[in-house]
Amino acid sequence: MRRLAAAALLLWGCGGGAGDDADASPATDTGGRPADAASAPADAAPADAAPDATAADATPDTDALPPPVDEDVDWTPATPAALHADIPGAPTDRPAACGDRWVSVVRGWVAAPGGAPVPGAKAQFCVHTVPGDVLVCLRPATAGDDGVFTVEVPENTRCMSRAALRVLLPGTGKATTYCSVPLPEGEAVVRLEAPYVVFQTRPAVSLPPAGDDAATRPIAFDDGLVIDFTPEAFYSGGGDYAELGGRRVPVSARGLCFLEGQPAPDGLYAFFPEGSFSGSGAPVHIPNATGLPAGARVELNVLGGLDCRRPDGRIIPEASWEAIGTGTVSEDGARIDSDPGVGLPCLTWLGYRRAE
User: Fold this and answer.
1) What's the sign of the alpha-carbon dihedral 309, 313, 318, 323?
2) Are 191 and 263 in contact (CB under 8 A)?
3) CATH code given to domain 71-197
4) Rounded to the nearest 5°, which phi and psi values hold at 163?
5) Is residue 52 scored above 50 in pLDDT?
6) Under a CB-based contact definition with an 8 Å cutoff, are residues 200 and 72 in contact?
7) Quick one: CA dihedral 220, 174, 29, 184, positive or negative?
8) Where exactly are the structural domains of the chain?
9) Is it true that the peptide bond before 273 is cis, omega within 30 degrees of 0?
10) Quick count: other Cβ atoms within 10 Å of Cβ 160?
11) What is residue 182's DSSP assignment?
């Protein structure tokens, strides 16, 4: 599998600075992927993969899978007191030269489903600066024991038109999430009341040996979803092939900030590690758990993330929930197959709903 340096993807993400310098740096042309990532050598692996395996071969016994997690839905956030604590020295005077939003500090909190805080979570603030509309992602802030984080925005990036937060907990199997950040007019200090929720994934239930990186193989997740996965087409600094995981998340779960204002999906999946696919992406086969009729068309959507690109090179922006194409319910009604030429451009979150 082609992999990025962990620091580039997990800590600097979409273009933050290097070293100990607190100033931000503009996003790289590749959206966070080092320029030499495409030529990085593939990991060594035994040549015992089964490239001719099919999605049906990978389908697990769903009766043996764990039940849905009720705490995804049935909980009420309890805002930590530190969220509203004073922030000494926070700049509040917007320069006259800034004709847009001006933000000096962002404070928020990270929780797991059920409301428990997530100490050590990383919160990376990404802004589009004014002037120039340059994407800049800052050094991640680390959540404390109460899940609260504070991002101090460098002076040269405080004038902005829009912003998003990328939240993750490296090395834990928790899915990375992205949320747009509201920027109220006249508020230099932004406090985010709603928690950023990180969902635990489950290890892939059918993971063929690594084998030949160029060989496509079906990998089954959670309730039977299968991705036709080609290791050499996938790059991620947050984990490797053996750590792949995912699970179905209730569409009514708390903390799905990226779905606000969007049509509700019929089904939703979270994945780990975050990463991107080159070329036309990875075809996907989804259990038809909602009973759509054979031949029905569905719209497939993904959450934009680090270097999430369509086959034509267009970026799906961080925190953006966008359609990537369509799928069709199989003749036996058992699954939804992505249509020819349609594949996942990145491994973040996937949703589907019946096409209108």
Assistant:
1) negative
2) no
3) 2.60.40.10
4) -155, 160
5) no
6) no
7) positive
8) 54-70+200-354, 71-197
9) yes
10) 23
11) -
